[in-house]
Every structure is written in structure tokens, then in C-alpha cells.
Amino acid sequence: LPSENPFTIPEQDLLTLDLRDSSLQVYVGNSLRVVDRFVRQNIMRRLRQKTWVFRGTNKRKRTRYYVTYGCFASVAQATNVISRMPRRIRRHRPWVRSLASVQKMIRNRVG
Length: 111
Fold this sequence. Notes:
Blueprint: E1 8-9, E2 22-29, H1 32-46, E3 51-57, E4 63-72, H2 75-84, H3 87-90, E5 95-98, H4 99-108
Parallel strand pairs: 1-3
Antiparallel strand pairs: 2-4, 2-5, 3-4
């Protein structure tokens, strides 16, 4: 996905990470513009881990843009990070997501 955001790494990099690791899904948006604004206002100013934006579809087959944050060796490590995130980000209810599920979504999408 095109982005001028220096903290957003190309989604293809997600496909190279270890399937056993986890990331935090911190935001889901309907448009790349909305997601980019979220990343600029929240991630760039407050967090210092790698962040990826990738395109996928929800259960209704609608395009969504997902923001994932960090790469963690364990679910416990990722969960611990959630509790230390700024409230502004926590209000979006970040959750631990396996990189295997992220990679599956990227590989299986149409278009």
C-alpha cells in the first residue's frame, strides 16, 4: 500500500515474519486516508515499534485497512504492551493477532 508515512512498513514485509509471532491489531478503517490519519496522529507521535497497514476484507467482503503494531515472540509480551499504550490508542481496543492470520488474510485476498 502506498504511504508517505515513515513509520509504516510495506505490507509485503509482513509475509517475511515468523508465523509463530504475534502483532497487535490497533485499528481498522474503511479507507486508507482515515487509517493514514490515525497512524500519523497516534503511532508516529506515541509509539516506537514497527507498524504495518495492510488491506483485507471483513466477513461481509468489504475492503478494510488494518493497522498492526510490533512483532512479539509471545502473546504475553504483546498483551503487556497493550496495557502500556496511551489511552487514545487503547480506546480502539487493540488485540493480539497472530502473524499467521495476518499473512493468511494478505495471501487470500482478491484484488
